[in-house]
Design brief:
By secondary structure, this protein is an all-alpha fold. The chain has one domain. The protein contains six helices and no strands. The longest helix has 33 residues. The protein is globular, with a radius of gyration of 17 Å.
């Protein structure tokens, strides 16, 4: 999909789907609504597109380093969430975790259009 409509548009769509899923989870009053929200969060996952975008913008000799940095941040965020999530949940409730996910995803949309360089159009000549 990202090859057809562009990486940024694909990431935008994925982030919007993820935000909707997060908000559904935040307001869920039963397990079925929570499952719906979590399914949407999974459908909105954009990791593969982010990896493809790194390949588009980073030179081949630096690509390994960029992928390592991305992987490190994924691991670091996972570890941090194991410490922060129980504290947030105890203080503000389980819904605060999903509210934070939605807010961080919104921040990602802003960064996507203010920090990430403009992408080149993909044509058959440069594929």
């Amino acid at each position: 999909l990202s090859d057809k409509i562009g990486r940024k548009k694909t990431m935008l769509i994925g982030l919007i789907i993820f935000i909707i899923g997060s908000l559904i989870c935040s307001f869920a009053e039963n397990i079925y609504t929570m499952l719906l929200g979590r399914m949407l969060q999974g459908a909105g996952a954009i990791g593969a597109v982010a990896t493809a975008m790194i390949s588009d913008f980073i030179t081949e000799e630096n690509r390994g380093k960029a992928m390592a940095v991305m992987g490190s941040f994924i691991g670091l965020s996972f570890a941090a969430s194991m410490v922060i999530s129980p504290l947030m949940s105890a203080k503000w409730g389980l819904s605060s975790l999903f509210d934070l996910s939605a807010a961080l995803s919104l921040l990602c949309i802003i960064l996507l259009y203010t920090v990430v360089p403009k992408e080149n159009k993909i044509t058959h000549e440069n594929e």
